[in-house]
Amino acid sequence: MAATLNRILKKVEDLGDEYFVIHSEIKPYGPGTRRFILGKHMELPKKIEKLPNGKFARSQGVQMYFGKVPLPALEFEKWLDEFIKGEHM
Fold first, then answer.
1. CA–CA distance from 8 to each of 4, 25, 27, 36, 89 (Å)?
2. What own/partner pairs with CB < 8 Å and gap ≥ 24 does 29-34 have?
3. Nearest to 77 by CA among 34, 29, 43, 18
């Protein structure tokens, strides 16, 4: 799975900074249980207040998600390749 995950992450990274992927495993955990969905920042989160620890709280920003449901790795990678060929370019 690590090779597939790394390929997917690289492809999403190559789309640009505004794109991101959310992925997680679902129960029962094990091979074939990781799901993916592609997102795009429409408005990046902004710093809204400085916290006592010196870090900043951020707004939520605005995101858009592609696809109706999260997909298993191999299906998502195939979908992502089609997205890159068609919609993004």
1. 6, 15, 21, 9, 17
2. 31/1, 32/72, 32/73, 34/1, 34/5, 34/72, 34/73
3. 34
- The answer to whether residue 69 scores a pLDDT higher than 90 is yes
As beta bridge partners, residue 47 has 58
Task: Tell me the helices (H) and strands (E) count for the chain, helix number first.
Answer: 2, 5
pLDDT in tens, 15-46: 999 999 999 998 888 888 899 999 999 998 88
Cβ atoms of residues 13 and 80 within 8 Å: no
* Mean pLDDT, rounded, for 61-88: 91
